[in-house]
Amino acid sequence: QKEVEQDPGPLSVPEGAIVSLNCTYSNSAFQYFMWYRQYSRKGPELLMYTYSSGNKEDGRFTAQVDKSSKYISLFIRDSQPSDSATYLCAMYEEYGNKLVFGAGTILRVKS
Amino acid sequence: GAGVSQSPSNKVTEKGKDVELRCDPISGHTALYWYRQSLGQGLEFLIYFQGNSAPDKSGLPSDRFSAERTGGSVSTLTIQRTQQEDSAVYLCASSLVGGPMNTEAFFGQGTRLTVV
Predict the structure, then answer these.
(1) B interface mutation test: which of A24, A56, A99, A106 has the most B CBs within 10 A?
(2) Which residues of B touch A44 (CB under 8 A)?
(3) B71 Cβ under 8 Å from any chain A Cβ
(4) What does the alpha-carbon distance between residue B8 and residue A102 come to, in Å, rounded to a whole number?
């Protein structure tokens, strides 16, 4: 079993839709959670970073962490064609030094 | 440079040959990571350098893989006797400091390695 599970998709939605992307994890030592966005043939770039359980909002993006369920989510409101990319969840252990990534979900927003 | 620079951007090599992949991190960043991304897979951790400390090599898949970081800056990932399963995108990232207390690792665009 992988430490981090993420549905690879692809997920196809119409422009303006609310998108929900999710990851589950098995290692309870994970304490820091991140979402990266990766455009085709580019390196990943950080979107959101959270530590505690709960919600964190940044513009159209909301990251949600539920440590009791070992479940994290990224919500995208009013999705745009420019949001079409692969979204990777990633997490660190409390005293770890390596990011552990999910497989990434391919998102396609149709205009 | 303004960002993490990797070279070459693409590399096609014959099975059995050695390859060297280069990473120029952001100036002043003490932490440097190498990851591998295979088609449809997430990023697989390979190795982590932090300052002058001994690197964390726990992710290197075999002894054909090695990496060094000279002068705390440029890093080279070497794959000896390449195999077809080594075909992937190799990503380098750097951050100001290592570990979770650093909030952002900046990635390069990667080197796409194809072993034929």
Answers:
(1) A99
(2) 43, 91, 107
(3) no
(4) 26
CB < 8 Å to B108, chain A? 43
Q: CA A58 to CA A11: how far, in whole Å?
A: 22
Total count of residues recorded for chain A? 111
Residue B34, number of CB atoms within 10 A of its CB: 26
Res. A95: pLDDT tops 80: no
The Cα–Cα gap between B93 and A90 comes to 14
Six-digit token string for B114: 């194809």
pLDDT of res. B102 = 60
Q: What is the mean pLDDT of each run of 10 residues along chain B (116 residues)?
A: 90 98 94 90 90 90 95 93 97 83 82 97
